[in-house]
Write a structure and sequence with these properties.
By secondary structure, the chain is mostly helical. It folds into 3 domains: about 30-70, no CATH class; about 75-175 and about 265-315, Cytochrome Bc1 Complex, Chain D, domain 2 (Orthogonal Bundle); about 180-260, Cytochrome Bc1 Complex, Chain D, domain 2 (Orthogonal Bundle). The chain is about 40% helix and about 5% strand. Helix 3 (about 85-95) crosses helix 12, helix 6 packs across helix 12 (about 275-285) and helix 7 packs across helix 10 (about 250-260). The N and C termini lie far apart (about 85 Å). Component of the cbb3-type cytochrome c oxidase. It is found in: Cell inner membrane. Its cofactor is heme c.
């Protein structure tokens, strides 16, 4: 290795003086255009760190002279979208839900908006496809089995006020006793067989006869003598072979012995009335929605207008940053 610098005869360029086995390294200068590009990007980088958030500090980063932030940009974009659909949202709040489907444009808007609301707030429990999770008692919203009614008004009321929660005085409410506290194991087993018989499942006929008497004395006041349920109090229909927690013997034993107490939060104040109605329209259209009652050619009037204390939109009650969506829409 040599450290002697010289001028290369072929190129006229000075060498670095480094040589390995007769191979020399030329000290070729950088192209002028590359140097000017480098200088320009260096200056641009310094200016950028002055104008925009850049330097990390103890409690955050420098804000930048322009005050720009990605959160601010998203908020501005959301505001633009909200302004563009303000008229439709206002119409959605004031329309009679019973005749929403008669306005094709508004109904289409409500369903599409409801799809987004459902994905952000409801799918965590009911699933992205709204098929529910039977093991956890999250209802399937695709079928036509409804505890509290399946019209769009009924669904909106359920979404607005929730089920068995202590946050809304108008929440849907029902409570099944835990019969394990005063029934024997044999009595519970007999009632399980009768309930399976009501649902058309394989059962022990002798035990079912015993269970029928227990059912009539203790359960029929809510579920009805025939086990068809009562929507006024949210008592399930036991004859349709659709089970919220499962229809096998183990699941029914647990239901009768310990009772169930599924809870759904009230979404009215959190989402705003427009989004409540939108998600109701979406759920109603998933396949199991029921038609409103008719009087002649007119839809029967119903109490689908909420308490005035509910905001018209979610912007009036913003969710805390990082706060997760909770609990299910129950049918």
């Amino acid at each position: 290795m040599s450290d002697e610098k010289r001028i290369d005869a072929e190129t006229g360029t000075e060498t670095t003086g480094h040589q390995w086995d007769g191979i020399e390294e030329l000290n070729t200068p950088l192209p002028r255009w590359w140097l000017w590009t480098f200088y320009a990007t260096t200056v641009w980088g310094v200016i950028y760190t002055i104008l925009f958030p850049a330097w990390p500090m103890i409690s955050g980063a420098t804000a930048g002279a322009l005050g720009w932030s990605s959160r601010g940009e998203v908020a501005a974009e959301i505001e633009r979208v909200d302004l563009s659909r303000a008229d439709l949202m206002e119409s959605l709040v004031t329309v009679d839900l019973g005749v929403l489907d008669r306005n094709e444009d508004l109904h289409r808007f409500a369903v599409q908006a409801g799809r987004s609301v459902f994905a952000a707030n409801c799918s965590q429990c009911h699933g992205a496809g709204a098929a529910g999770v039977q093991a956890a008692g999250y209802p399937n919203l695709l079928d036509d089995d409804w505890l509290w009614g399946g019209t769009i008004r009924d669904i909106a009321t359920t979404v607005r006020h929730g089920i068995r929660n202590e946050d809304d005085p108008d929440a849907r409410w029902s409570q099944m006793p835990a019969f394990g506290e005063f029934w024997t194991d044999d009595e519970i087993a007999a009632t399980v067989e009768h309930v399976r018989a009501l649902g058309g499942l394989e059962h022990d006929p002798d035990l079912a006869v015993v269970g029928a008497e227990l059912f009539y004395d203790n359960c029929a006041s809510c579920h009805g003598d025939e086990g068809t349920g009562d929507r006024e109090i949210g008592a399930p229909n036991l004859t349709d072979a659709i089970w919220l927690y499962g229809g096998d013997r183990e699941a029914l034993d647990r239901t009768i012995r310990h009772a169930r107490f599924g809870v759904m939060p009230p979404w009215g104040a959190r989402l705003g009335e427009a989004q409540v109605r939108a998600v109701a329209a979406y759920v109603h259209g998933l396949g199991g929605g029921e038609e409103e009652a008719m009087i002649g050619d007119e839809v029967e009037a119903g109490p689908d207008v909420p308490d005035a204390s509910f905001p018209a939109s979610a912007e009036e009650t913003p969710r805390e940053a990082g706060e997760p969506p909770v609990a299910p829409v129950a049918d």
